[in-house]
Specification:
Bound molecules: 6-O-phosphono-alpha-D-glucopyranose
Number of helices: 18
Oligomer: single chain
CATH superfamily of the largest domain: Aminohydrolase, N-terminal nucleophile (Ntn) domain
Radius of gyration: 25 Å
Distance between the termini: 10 Å
Mean pLDDT: 94
Shape: globular
Strand content: 15-25%
Number of strands: 25
CATH topology of the largest domain: Glutamine Phosphoribosylpyrophosphate, subunit 1, domain 1
Number of domains: 3
């Protein structure tokens, strides 16, 4: 979480505005607060604001802060509340060194106590603030020490997974990374640092990839790599990254979330048109492995869970699933012939990356499904399948979930030797999704949202592959509308959860035309008998339903169509409650802390 951005180059009339533009592309990483530091002729101006970047923009209105060096930050709070004081950049006692940071400095308390003992004054409650003071202390002790050396030595003192970016008045930005993502970029009139490659889209295609423990010194003239352990410096070599993805625009849609929901039929069609050779290569890795494990977080995790059912039913293959954050405690049986399949929209989720690193330590192979090209996960993997869902800007993940489900379905059919059938199912599904959305599904879900907006709890049940759909539907509803929603395996209700059902409690029942159908219907009846208000998501009307949300009959692709009504419901509940569907509170699109 947190986005960092920096520029060192030719003087810009409105450097503050320029840095804001850079931060705009990183705002998905956190929007608790934001701030910038702009340097001109040795003087620094720091402006910070709480809340979305738009608030900082308002504060900057009319102030054309020119300069040749600047850094900016968009924050997802970890240490210290959401206040202007805790917003980055943070400075040293003299206010000359400015620092922005992504990660957690795990030993900050101990370092802070030492620095306080040495007379340093702190203004915030953050872990980050120790960093400029550490640099200040090092320079105070050794006047001959260069700024970049002081930053490197300070970086080596901190523990945890961090990306730190520091600058002072002499035109140089010094940044280091360990665990957290960071890249540099070479521009025409200046050079950059950014938390990720998309942050530099529209600015440059010449990217300097930083490996673990590497740092950079970025000046107007050059980008020099620094080894954090030895201090060895070398002129950085750039990689050309084709940023085909144009800056995503909302078009005629009021929010990215609704636009991305409506893009889903196209995403499924695109997956169906994937290069068969690529699918076959991925499938060969699965077939060769002595055990296949899925890992992912959040919405991506639900796609992994769905995949375990698809693999069992379609490919007759046993696979395992564990959340990224749980995987390191679950990997003792990995051997070099094991395969880990990691799925991630951003390719930067720390827990997923840590799972991959743990697997690699055991010598296992890694296959990844990633939406953002050139992200860290793609670099760690033996093979990557790009989801090609296009830029996903809403914090709620929708179209990349659909893309992952579609690829997993293709993998399962390919293992079974029926790849063409898998492709055909996806092609049909895509067409059916277009029809379903045209038939007025959104209006229906809007009407239902009005009815449900005042309720406290929503329950969702499904069996088999649609147990994953139930979990994902509940996640969509709660993360956007803040209404408590829970997904359950339908059969588990009678073992406890049914106690929560009262007259009128909304219960979504996902009923596909598969082998689980009769059992889920019975569970729906059990809920109805206790007064549950039954909303059926199904291709067939059933007498138990109080409301029927019709979805097309698409066989094994049922999780792809069944999630859409709940995505739409989440969107409309959120609007009715007056929240921003693209930016739910407390969340970030890419979670880069563990
Ligand atoms: C965050 C987002 C979720 C997302 C999860 C995993 O928690 O808010 O929407 O599903 O991260 O992200 P990834 O980029 O790895 O798919």
């Amino acid at each position: 979480m947190c986005g960092v951005f920096g520029y060192s180059g030719e003087e810009k009339e409105d450097l503050a505005g320029y840095i804001l533009e850079g931060l705009k592309k990183l705002e998905y990483r956190g929007y608790d607060s934001s701030g910038i530091a702009v340097f001109k002729k040795g003087k620094v101006r720091i402006i910070k604001e709480v809340g979305e970047l738009a608030n900082l923009r308002k504060r900057l209105k009319g102030k054309h802060l020119s300069g040749n060096l600047g850094i900016g930050h968009t924050r997802w709070a970890t240490h210290g509340g959401v206040t202007r004081k805790n917003a980055h950049p943070h400075t040293d006692c003299l206010g000359k060194i400015a620092v922005v940071h992504n990660g957690i400095m795990e030993n900050y308390e101990e370092i802070k106590q030492k620095l306080l003992g040495l007379g340093h004054k702190f203004k915030s409650e953050t872990d980050t603030e120790i960093f400029p003071h550490l640099i200040e202390e090092k320079i105070k002790k050794d006047r001959n020490l260069s700024f970049s050396e002081a930053v490197r030595l300070s970086f080596n003192q901190i523990e945890g997974l961090n990306a730190v970016c520091a600058c002072c008045s002499d035109g140089e930005i010094v940044a280091f990374r360990k665990g957290s993502p960071l890249v540099a970029g070479l521009g025409e009139k200046g050079n950059f640092v950014s938390s990720d490659i998309p942050g530099l889209s529209c600015l440059t295609r010449k990217i300097v990839i930083l490996e673990e423990g590497e740092g950079v010194s970025v000046t107007k003239e050059r980008v020099v790599k620094i080894n954090s352990k030895t201090g060895k410096r070398a002129l950085a070599k750039e990689t050309f990254v084709d940023m085909e993805e144009k800056e995503a625009a909302r078009g005629n849609f009021p929010y990215f979330l609704i636009k991305e929901i409506f893009e889903q039929p196209e995403v499924v069609a695109r997956v169906a048109a994937s290069d068969k050779k690529e699918i076959k290569k991925a499938v060969e890795m699965i077939k060769k492995s002595w055990g296949t494990y899925f890992t992912a977080c959040g919405t991506a995790a639900h796609s992994g869970l769905a995949a375990t059912y698809m693999f069992s039913e379609i490919a007759k293959r046993h696979v395992n699933f564990a959340f990224g954050s749980e995987f390191p405690y679950f990997n003792d049986f990995l051997v070099p012939k094991s395969l880990l399949i990691a799925a991630s929209q951003s390719g930067e989720t720390m827990d997923t990356l840590e799972a991959v690193r743990a697997a690699k330590k055991k010598g296992a192979k890694v296959l990844s499904l990633v939406n953002v090209p050139s992200s860290t996960l793609t670099r760690l993997s033996d093979k990557t399948i790009l989801l090609k869902a296009g830029p996903e800007r809403a914090v709620l993940s929708t179209k990349s979930y659909i893309a992952k489900l579609s690829f997993f379905l293709l993998f399962a059919y390919a293992i079974a030797g029926r790849l063409n059938l898998g492709i055909k199912i996806l092609q049909e599904t895509s067409k059916e999704m277009v029809r379903m959305l045209k038939r007025g599904l959104e209006a229906k879900m809007k009407k239902l949202a009005k009815k449900l907006s005042g309720c406290e709890h929503i329950y969702i049940i499904g069996r088999g592959v649609n147990y994953a759909t139930a979990l994902e539907g509940a996640l969509k509803i709660k993360e956007a509308s803040y209404i408590h929603a829970e997904g359950f395996p339908a059969g588990e209700l009678k073992h406890g959860v049914i106690a929560l059902i009262e007259p009128g409690t909304p219960c979504f029942c996902i009923i596909a035309k598969d082998r689980a159908k009769e059992a889920v219907l019975s569970n729906a009846m059990e809920l109805k008998s206790r007064g549950g208000y039954i909303i059926g998501i199904s291709s067939e009307r059933q007498s138990v339903f109080d409301v029927w949300i019709q979805v097309p009959e698409v066989g094994a692709a049922s999780p792809i169509v069944s999630i859409i009504p709940m995505q739409l419901l989440a969107y409309h509940l959120t609007l009715i409650k007056g929240y921003n569907p693209d930016r739910p509170r407390n969340l970030a699109k890419s979670v880069t802390v563990r």
